[in-house]
């Protein structure tokens, strides 16, 4: 099988499983497990769904403000930088890419720092 990466922008709010079942966002709890905390998710096509908190939190990051989005971008960039750092054999082009990524990381961190500084003023 091939690998796929999906990115969706959704709206969500905390909702327990029982409420989700009552609103028909989730199926009935057939395996008699305890009611779980989770999230009501509204997809761009206006479909409503419920996800358990652990699934939701591993899939989605809060992107309500531009600073949230910068944090997400920084986190993803740092993961990619780490993968390059762990490679044993890097060619010249990968080293150039790595240096550019490190510079971009510095810019994102400066933007976050600047935002925090302006918030304190």
Task: Give the secondary structure arrangement, pairings included.
Elements: E1 11-16, H1 17-22, E2 37-42, E3 48-52, H2 53-59, H3 66-86, H4 92-120
Structure overview:
The structure is a single chain. The protein has 121 residues and is α+β, with helices and mostly antiparallel strands. It folds into 2 domains: 11-59, no CATH class; 66-120. Helix content is 52%, strand content 14%. The protein contains 4 helices and 3 strands. The protein has a 3-stranded antiparallel β-sheet with strand order 1-2-3. Strand 2 and strand 3 form a beta hairpin. It is extended. 8% of the residues are buried.
Task: Write a concise keyword list for the protein shown above.
121 residues; 2 domains; 4 helices; alpha+beta; 52% helix; extended; 3-stranded antiparallel beta sheet
